[in-house]
Write a structure and sequence with these properties.
Length: 295
């Protein structure tokens, strides 16, 4: 599966193209869900308007593995990642609970092992959200995953492919809470999970806490009362040679540090998923209202 995904990713990266020379443009990649698109566009507009460098956008590059390989191969220069994902899925380290310690470890190991720079967090923590329908939570008086475990043998679950495979994903969650389901969990595209839950195709899903559709679709996030998930601070990751060649990129991205709250991110995601607005305009409006430009 990984070889097939890598071949797919390589097929979308042309060997040559029009526009400025490769060394004079910044190539930004993202994973294949809405929040990544927003963060990618946010970085792209900052670099274009503050650093005055051309940006090539290569969004929707499947998941973590493809983005990591694209960075290692020099086919993208920058992408948004999450510290817990970097720690467990990329560095293959056991989950840890302290956000500052996880960030420090990821920064250090990414620099040593990959020659990547992990910049300061955007400001929000986007942990996994184990979601059920709000009406089910109210009817069964559920607040936590421990309480829900007694009902899951009658439920159908839906998860993304990466969640099923990663070390901080399904297997560990099921073991921690003793979760069993009526059928084998369905593997679905991340963008389909919330609506599949609403439409009763599944009864439990692993989404994200910043998903803008949670309040709109009346979904309920079960408390991770046994603290299974590590912190997932969103951070920009950039290849070190790019910063050496273009130090102005660091200055352009600096205003984004700590600039986005969980509520902000949920609203930005909803603007795309719920209101179907254009990402460039949504990001442009957010930038105008949240921070001054440093030119």
């Amino acid at each position: 599966m990984r070889r097939a995904l890598l071949l797919l990713a390589l097929s979308v990266f042309p060997l040559a193209g029009c526009g400025p020379p490769r060394a004079q443009r910044i190539v930004i990649g993202t994973k294949n869900f809405t929040e990544q698109l927003v963060l990618g566009e946010l970085m792209a507009q900052q670099i274009e308007e503050v650093a005055h460098l051309p940006v090539e956008r290569r969004y929707y590059l499947a998941g973590t593995y493809i983005c990591q390989q694209a960075m290692l191969g020099g086919r993208i220069d920058l992408y948004p990642e999450y510290t817990g994902t970097a720690l467990t899925a990329v560095l293959k380290q056991p989950p840890a609970k302290d956000p500052a310690a996880v960030l420090a470890s990821v920064k250090d190991q990414y620099r040593q092992r990959f020659n990547f720079q992990v910049l300061e967090p955007f400001g929000f923590n986007n942990t996994f959200a184990i979601e059920i329908r709000g009406e089910d939570a109210r009817r069964l008086h559920l607040q936590s995953l421990s309480q829900a475990a007694q009902f899951t043998p009658r439920w159908r679950a839906g998860f993304g492919y990466e969640f099923m495979e990663r070390p901080d994903g399904y297997r560990g969650l099921a073991a921690t809470y003793g979760l069993k389901f009526a059928t084998t969990p369905r593997i679905m595209d991340l963008g389909l999970l919330a609506r599949a839950l609403r439409d009763r195709q599944i009864d439990l899903a692993a989404g994200n806490t910043t998903d803008g559709l949670i309040p709109v679709l009346d979904l309920f996030v079960l408390e991770d009362d046994r603290r299974y998930f590590p912190p997932y601070q969103a951070v920009p990751i950039i290849r070190a040679p790019v910063l050496e060649r273009h130090p102005e990129v660091r200055r352009a991205l600096q205003p984004l540090a700590g600039a986005i709250s969980e509520t902000d991110m949920q609203r930005l995601n909803f603007a795309l998923d719920g209101q179907h607005r254009d990402v460039k305009e949504v990001v442009r409006q957010f930038r105008r209202s949240h921070f001054q430009q440093t030119r």
